[in-house]
Amino acid sequence: MKKYLKSISAAVLIIVTMLSLACCGSADSLNTYYRKFTETQNCTLSVWFSLNANGQSVVTRSVATIDGQKAKFEVTASVLGQSQSVTTYIEQRGNDTYLYQDAGISWVKSKMTDESSDSALDTAKELKELFNEEYYTYDTENKRYVMNSDASVDIANVGKFTDSVIQKLDDQYKLTATVEIQGLSGTFEMVLKDIGETSVTLPNATEIEE
Predict the structure, then answer these.
(1) Interatomic CA distance for residues 146 and 138, integer angstroms
(2) How far apart are CA 139 and CA 170, in angstroms?
């Protein structure tokens, strides 16, 4: 359970550790969509996986609430009927990123290492490849980008994506795809919504020294 939870929540961790200035572009290019998903400072970002293999099923829903340089994300994973939920916070102060974790009796705060941050940024560069227009055909009638049948994108620490569809629906941005993770295959959905309407209050926490 913990192995699957750690792997699946990586997709959300990658995005929230990249928070920076909000994008102001209005063009409907895939680069604009990528920047909306990774740079919007105030929003709700939900990530949903439904995976299965050899009779095993893994269903995970992650909800990231992003408020400027603060983010709260809640991950609930169900494996073979057993569920586990984890709530974590991330805060950015200048070039430093802090992780808040529930220690049971109280919350603890620790500074993310440079190695962890570098790894997240490297993976984020690969995430951008999922928005590469070379892999897509624009569906004019439905106003959406559809991944070509012979295209696929491998993202380190996340999985292999195929059959991706990216679109804007009213005030939401949505990406759906087929995904393979650690031998499990299934569907993936990522939705950006509540833009400009979210707030996060960090818990009181004891800081762990490096």
Answers:
(1) 6
(2) 17
CB-based contacts of 95, cutoff 8 Å, min separation 6: none
pTM for this prediction: 0.79
- Phi, psi at 133, each rounded to 5°: -65, -20
Strand partners, 46: 63, 191
pLDDT digits (tens, 9 = 90+) for 88-147: 998 988 888 888 998 888 899 988 776 555 555 555 666 788 999 999 999 999 999 999
Two tokens at 186? 């299934």
- Please state the three-class secondary structure of the chain as a single string: CHHHHHHHHHHHHHHHCCCCCCCCCCCCCHHHHHHHHHHCCEEEEEEEEEEEECCEEEEEEEEEEEECCEEEEEEEEEECCEEEEEEEEEEEECCEEEEEEECCCCEEEEECCHHHHHHHHHHHHHHHHCCCHHHEEEECCCCEEEECCCCCEEECCCEEEEEEEEEEECCEEEEEEEEEECCEEEEEEEEEECCCCCCCCCCCEEEECC
Burial 140-176 (b: 16+ CB within 10 A, else e): eeeebbbbeeeebbebebbbebbbbbbbeeeeebbbb
Are the CB atoms for 65 and 73 separated by under 8 Å? yes
